[in-house]
Amino acid sequence: GARKVVLIGASFEGSVVLPAGGAVLPLVDGVVSVSGAADFLGAVDAAPHVTVPILYLVGRYDDVQRLCDATASADKTINVLDRGEHEADLVGASRAARRDRRLRAAH
Question: Read out DSSP for the chain?
């Protein structure tokens, strides 16, 4: 079976992982919210119940500070990518940028 379980969600699901991350038993090992919004599905109200490590991955136009401030976990990180992409496009753009850098370096 699985040794570690991490909840990951992007955009709408990036908000859903907050209530789930604070309520799932046994506790998950971590939560990753990609472009989650504080005002969806009570995410900001659920954040004080999230005690596991959490990573907020956002683009420069995503507003996650209120969620992070409300999160109870002592192990919380905001990683702001200086691009305008949102949710899965944010992650995909990062992957494509790394691939392009590797291709340029190989030539």
Answer: --S--EEEEETHHHHHHHHHHHH-SSPPSEEEEES--TTSTTHHHHGGG--S-EEEEEETT---HHHHHH---SSEEEEEESS---THHHHHHHHHHHHHHHHHHH-
How far is it, in rounded angstroms, from Cα 70 to Cα 81? 21
**Per-residue pLDDT at 91 exceeds 80:** no
Q: What is the mean pLDDT of residues 28-42?
A: 87
Note the pLDDT tens digit of each residue in 55-89. Answer: 998 888 877 888 899 999 999 999 887 766 655 66
Separation between Cα atoms, residue 88 and residue 60, nearest integer Å = 14
Are the CB atoms for 68 and 45 separated by under 8 Å?
A: no
> What distance in Å separates the CA atoms of residue 19 and residue 30, rounded to the nearest whole number?
13
